[in-house]
Every structure is written in structure tokens, then in C-alpha cells.
Amino acid sequence: MDLAQLAALHAESLDAVASADDAAALEQTRIRYLGRNGLLPAVMKQLKDVPPAERPEFGKRANAWRNELETAMTARAAALTVQPSEAAPAFDCSLPGRWWRAGAQHPVSRVIDEVVRIFSRLGFTVADGPDIETRFNNFTALNTPPHHPSMDAADTFWFDDDKLLRTQTSPVQIRAMLAQPPPVRIVTPGRCYRRDTTDATHSASFHQVEGLYVDTTPVSLADLKATLAHFARAMMGPDVGVRFRPHFFPFTEPSVEVDFSCHLCRGQGCRVCKQSGWIEIAGAGMVDPRVYRHVGYDPDRVYGYAFGMGVERIAMIRYGIADIRHLYENDLRFLEQFA
Ligand code: DAH
Fold first, then answer.
1. H or E segment and range at residue 3
2. Do 151 and 22 share a structural domain?
3. Which of 167, 214, 287, 307 to mutate to test the pocket of ligand 1 (most atoms within 8 A of CB)?
4. Of 28, 67, 185, 339, which is most buried with the most CB atoms under 10 A?
5. Which of 308, 304, 228 minimizes the C-alpha distance to 261?
6. Which residues does a 6 A CB cutoff place in the pocket of ligand 1?
């Protein structure tokens, strides 16, 4: 054994320590070099055979090898017991940020919020009613005759003879007037239910916003028209106008259907307005005297109008949604467009 061989062993042992990648491999390395029958004790035993001139230098280098090897073993053992997460910095500010998918407001909620916002600036407050209603609130007090087809089990979800899922938000009018004397100035967004077969424009569950203004000072059809004309401009754009068409609802007299001029073609005629230039938006009218009697108001002393509009319909027109079912399927590719 000469100095060159010693140097080779020294280097090889340090490499072995560095490449031991778990505790078992490191222990094998320790046994191979430092163990009782290991290479280092064997080298020490050969010291006496080294020529006397080289012996001090050989001894010195063998000791240095032992020290370096032991230090390397200790450091490697420590490195192997440290968990990678502890070894990494707690926060690496050089990494790209994590992207969190932000939620978006559903178009139905957006339209409801917008309608409420517009009417609250006109002094309307929001009123609420339950989805499960009574026959009286949903039909009778709204002057619907007892055998009206809308009460049929084919159109309305009945729980029993009296309870049903409301088919419209109009019963909230009845609740509001039963609860307080005039003036009443409310809008009532909410969910409604009908036994409709689902297709591109129908759903068994949908939303309406009802409006009611009743006062002891004169309120006229002209007030209704001015209010809805303001709403049309605020909701659809400054050039949009309204048109009333005579109609019939049991709870209003006279009754009208309300059209907005088409905001897309400005009345010229397009696909959305079916070439007519007008889009049907709401039902409305002057509250029928029989409704006042049902809630204990004196029909000779109060004046008022009511209106009701479909939220999904407004959302579809406003955002160009071709099929009502998109609004209920929770497809993120659709919903993310409203972020
Ligand atoms: N409730 C009616 C419907 O579902 C809409 C409606 C029409 C509401 C006229 C009203 C109204 O308040 O005055 O078709």
C-alpha cells in the first residue's frame, strides 16, 4: 500500500458517502470503510509494512481520511433525515402565482338585482313570499274564477286541496296588502312553478318579478306606462320604448301586455324580435276592484297598478341566450361568460 493507493481509497469512500441516497445505503458504506473489518482499519494495520521514510506521512494522511470520512458520514446522515418540505424555503416568491377560479353571478340573479335596483330608485321596496302558497293567495284573491284552467292539476303543482307551488309572484301582492294599509309600493322577485314541459323557452321552475303600487291618491295607467318606460330604458338602453297591447288578466282591469322595442335592431326587425321590432316583456294593468275587496281595501278610495315579468325571458333577451335550459345546467363554460 502506497500513498497513491491511499489517496484513491480516500476519494472513492467520499464518493460512496455522497451517493448513498438512503440511510441503509449509508450504513453499508460505513461498514465497508469504517467497520471492524473495514478498509480503513485494514489500512491502519498495514502501517507497519510501509517503508519507515514514508510512514509519518502515510499515518498523517490515513488519519485525515478517517476524520474527513466521519465528518462526511455525519453530514450525509443529517441530510437524509431532513424532509424535503423542511429543506425547501417556506415561501418561494419566484414561483408563478396560483390561479383561483373566481365565481360569477348567475344571469338570473343579475337580472333580479338590476330590476330591484332600478325600481328601488323609484321608491319601491322588496317584498318576499313563500314558494308554497294557498289557493286564496295564488288564485281566489287574485280574482281567478273557481274553474279557471290555470288551476287545473295539469297546470299547477298541488299538495292538497289548498296548498300549491305558486304559479306566479302575484300572490305576494295579496300578502303585502293584507299586511298593511296603502300606500304599498313593492317589487317581489321570486321563483314560480308550472307543470310545463321543458323546452327552449319553458321550464317547470322559473322566476318572476312582480310590482305593485297602490295609493290613496290617484294612480293611473299613464303612471304605469311612464314607470315601465323608465324601466325599459334603464334595463335595455336609452333608445328603448314601450308599447301597451290590450289583454286580459283576472286581477287587473284594464289589463295590458307590455312590449319593449327591440334593443338589438332598434325596431327594424331581427331574429330576436321575430321581425316585429317589439319584444313581449311583462303583463300589467290597473288592480281590479275585486282584488281590493279580498284584502279589505275600499275600491272607491284606492288606486293602483300591478305588473309582472319573467326574469329568464329578460336574461335571454338581454344576454342573447337562445335556450332557457342553459340557465339551469350549471355548465361552467356558459356561466363563466358572465364573470
Ligand atoms: N302573473 C302574471 C303571469 O304570470 C303576470 C302579471 C300580469 C302580473 C299582470 C301582474 C299583472 O301583476 O298585473 O302571467
1. helix 3-19
2. no
3. 307
4. 185
5. 228
6. 168, 170, 210, 249, 252, 283-285, 306-308
Residues 25, 67, single domain; the answer is yes
Q: Which domain holds residue 71?
A: 3-80
Residue 321 three-state SS: coil
pLDDT tens digits, residue range 320-339? 898 999 999 999 899 988 87
Q: Cβ(69)–Cβ(33) under 8 Å?
A: yes
Three cell numbers at 184? 304599498
Domain shared by 215 and 332, yes or no: yes
Q: 164 and 74: one domain?
A: no
Closest protein CA for atom 4 of ligand 1: 168
Question: What mean pLDDT comes out for the span 225-230?
Answer: 97
Residue 151 lies in a domain: yes
The reply to whether 95 falls in a domain is no
Number of domains present in the structure of the chain:
2
